[in-house]
Amino acid sequence: MLGTISADWIAIEVLQGGALLQGWAIGPGGEVLAQARGTGGNNGGDLEPAVLELAGGWLAHGRATLVLVSGAMAAGLRDVPCPPLSLPLWPVPAKDPRLDLRLVPGLAQRARVKGMMRGAETRIAGVLAARPGWDGVICLPGPETHWAELSAAEVVGFRSYMTAELFGLIAPTGDPGPQDASDETAFAEALARGMARPQALAGRLSQLRAEGVLDAHPADAGAQLWGLLIGAELAAARGWWLGRDVVIVGEGRLAQLYATALAAQGVGTQQIDADMAALAGLAQARGLLRNQT
Amino acid sequence: MLGTISADWIAIEVLQGGALLQGWAIGPGGEVLAQARGTGGNNGGDLEPAVLELAGGWLAHGRATLVLVSGAMAAGLRDVPCPPLSLPLWPVPAKDPRLDLRLVPGLAQRARVKGMMRGAETRIAGVLAARPGWDGVICLPGPETHWAELSAAEVVGFRSYMTAELFGLIAPTGDPGPQDASDETAFAEALARGMARPQALAGRLSQLRAEGVLDAHPADAGAQLWGLLIGAELAAARGWWLGRDVVIVGEGRLAQLYATALAAQGVGTQQIDADMAALAGLAQARGLLRNQT
């Protein structure tokens, strides 16, 4: 127990379908006092022990500290079109009296193309907080990549692609993507092929396997697979980026792959750090609660 | 030990990349005396114990019995264009003096589109044995599906698609495909979608997940996934079936899915049982050896 930090409130983001949590202890002026990552419980029922393990040291004694959680499976879903964030949040009964645990609802799209997002809505709210009135498309790469259309401060609709999850299932190793210049060339070529002939995936996988045996210096399979899969996604999501103002909210290499891929189509993007967006979104939720009381 | 069967020679097919073996004890007139299935050693080095476990009871004492094996990883590769089967076979040194173990080489395609097949070449030889001089396309569904072009008794070229392996990686369960009429409708619709918009795969996977939560009666995800993946394969392999004479060599539901999918494109197919083709191909190899001596 650190015991030295007493948070005004705590922001937590559930990641990777519940496998991972990250949290921030927030001070009374909105400043970040501490940050931590930990393994997650998978849903609301299991959430309390995971929250206590991550953030127990930030809890004051003698009062309940507000803990706002985005991305939790147990949170309800709100139907688009709607603002990315609005009250009520979902209170979760906690055994520990120091916890006032509330979940940010996800978004559901029940129109012809069904969709769900949990956590991305909070990142979107964080982006909007910094640029009120901004209209455009926000691309949120992750295990599922979401493309959300923002207009008049509402999520009008969204489309989701299991691209990175597919990569994880198919790739022999957890290859993170292009590592050097020759890999980048392989990525760019596969991207073009994936966009032009997305049906080639299963055939290209067989070829990569054969090249691994028959070629003396086989090209990097991971870079090619990323190119094929992101290329197919861009072909499918064309209406979401062609001639659009696109903001990418993501982290590290995956966000960079999307930016590179969109740049190859002549689409300039702006990248926003995913953690900063999540934290800003959770601060927005905190503000909504404060204004309510 | 059964001890009652003494095979003239033994035919073995290695399946699923080495995980499975099936074998036949063959009598002096070419008749099948017994059939068995077992788990496999993965390559030539491990093959002997797996062969002994499967077929040890069929071995005569006091002489070495010829055991012909197709599909083994340890066998060499012959470059297309070439006949599906030709001498030499690959002898494997065996510790057990009752074994005369020989492997049928696979085929390699080193042209622009790299490819390999191990075992399919023997099935192709079995098909050709029954119809000398036949030209056309043989489609061999399996973990990898091969499309082979036959002309003047040679495999001119082939193309491979990891479609069923992809299904196995992506599908939440080992769903075998459409089970009833409503599933067949879902398969047919997804097939059309997979052919027309193969780039939709990652997006459709996200939709299926959302439908599983949001819909009261979600459509069968397995049937849809088979439709999408086989549809994408048919779109990629169009030149291999459009206006062609196609023979499907496969078994059970997977072969039936390909036949249904091709029928929906107006392509009539003839189905040949995979086991019979393998056995006929191994008998052809036996004949080549006999003619040599």
UniProtKB/TrEMBL annotation, chains A, B:
<protein>
    <submittedName>
        <fullName>2-dehydro-3-deoxygalactonokinase</fullName>
    </submittedName>
</protein>
<dbReference type="Pfam" id="PF05035">
    <property type="entry name" value="DGOK"/>
</dbReference>
<dbReference type="GO" id="GO:0034194">
    <property type="term" value="P:D-galactonate catabolic process"/>
</dbReference>
<keyword id="KW-0808">Transferase</keyword>
<dbReference type="InterPro" id="IPR007729">
    <property type="entry name" value="DGOK"/>
</dbReference>
<dbReference type="InterPro" id="IPR042257">
    <property type="entry name" value="DGOK_C"/>
</dbReference>
<dbReference type="GO" id="GO:0008671">
    <property type="term" value="F:2-dehydro-3-deoxygalactonokinase activity"/>
</dbReference>
<keyword id="KW-0418">Kinase</keyword>
